[in-house]
Amino acid sequence: MKASVLQPDVARYLLDHCTPPDRLLEELAAETLAATGDSAGMQISPDQGRFLTMITQLVAPDVAVEVGTFTGYSSICIARGLSGGRLHCFDVSEEWTSIARRHWERAGLTDRVTLTLGPAADTLAAFDQPVDLAFLDADKQGYPVYYELLVERLRPGGLLMVDNTLWSGRVTDPADETPTTVSIREFNDLVAADPRVTTVLLPLADGLTMIRKN
Ligand SMILES: C[S@@+](CC[C@H](N)C(=O)[O-])C[C@H]1O[C@@H](n2cnc3c(N)ncnc32)[C@H](O)[C@@H]1O
């Protein structure tokens, strides 16, 4: 789980006042840590997971898309919020998503989730269904490309959520010119200036941008 941009005691307080994850998600987080080591930090936080389930319940999408599945935490949270729709997951890693597949099975979600492996720029370009809800959490330098492909496919009123848009607060540090920070900063500027959408950047976890297609 990436560090929150909030002070640690405030971040802890928020987590303590959010419905906690169930045993399956706890076990998935533990297995992810054991199997992937430092990469486990890519997993979304428990409060973000609750938020994704709640938003999915509110939007009630027929077609939901996730770009960046890793070992499955966020996909389980989204799929659990579905009421009849389907979640289409995109990732490049057979190894990491094999853990996701096992946990979709355990969670009884296999009939609601489809996984496509390959670079998301290609697999999204080939995806031809109108999208109601999307969650973007893949390689940060690819965000502008994935954003364009997703906005084109979002139906009017559809919602795109983008993770890590505060990048531990580094986007506000003008001295930070590392490639990922610069990419996210440019991405945030691009979204804020896009007349096709209405957007709010929430300070949830590492920053979650809510983007509604007008
Ligand atoms: C931050 S992790 C996703 C975390 C996940 N949402 C969760 O909650 O556990 C990013 C994922 O993006 C995937 N990824 C990286 N580059 C990609 C690409 N070009 N196309 C598709 N997926 C990619 C990685 O394999 C990794 O699983």
Automatic annotation (TrEMBL):
InterPro entries noted in UniProt: Cation-dep_OMT, SAM-dependent_MTases_sf, SAM_O-MeTrfase
Keyword rRNA-binding set for record: no
A GO term, aspect molecular function: caffeoyl-CoA O-methyltransferase activity
UniProt xrefs under Pfam families: Methyltransf_3
Enzyme Commission code: 2.1.1.104
Keywords: Methyltransferase, S-adenosyl-L-methionine, Transferase
Gene Ontology annotations of biological process type: methylation
Annotated protein name in UniProt: Caffeoyl-CoA O-methyltransferase
Species lineage: Bacteria, Bacillati, Actinomycetota, Actinomycetes, Streptosporangiales
